Amino acid sequence: MNNPIKISPSILSANFSKLGEEVISLEKAGADYIHIDVMDGHFVPNLTIGPEVIKTLRPLTNKIFDVHLMISPVDNFIKSFANAGADIITFHPEATKDTSKTISLIKKEGKKVGISLKPNSKIDLINNFLGEIDLVLIMSVEPGFGGQKFMPEVLKKTKLLKELISKNNFKVDIEIDGGINFENCSLAKEAGANILVSGSTIFKENKGDLRKNIEILRKN
Q: Does pLDDT of 125 surpass 50?
């Protein structure tokens, strides 16, 4: 049975001068999750926000905070992001020396666990952990910057992952992030993704009509 499509708007494309208002607007517009990209300028070539910002946003909404940690070494920061209000904590296997240990640290904090695969990262990196995690985040751009163009070559990996999850009856969501727009969102869904992350499309299309843009992504 296919999971219903969920939309996780990326606040990387929001107006940072009024981030709290943007989060409240996303909730009113029908977002399922709030996607928060955390970059350290080390694992990826950019800097974004830390736990303190997430902590200030947490009281403003009951929506699931879908936190993608593009930081290394990741283990040192899990507790801080968990305490700040993350609901799902997603990390990259390349950012840890011990994937099992990182999974355990996230679970110890009572949070859902996601593992992210960059465009060139192989499924083999996570095969042995699919029974232990809640989500796989497929990056359809190179992580580090918003507004990049979707890489259709990751759809093959998404399909293989979906087959693997279905075959073993794992309860794992497939999320896709990077250049998702009204044209390619249907391809992502057909490949097996049930959570779509989108930034620029949600905040900028149709004169910034968040509700309309979320619904188009959900239904296209």
A: yes
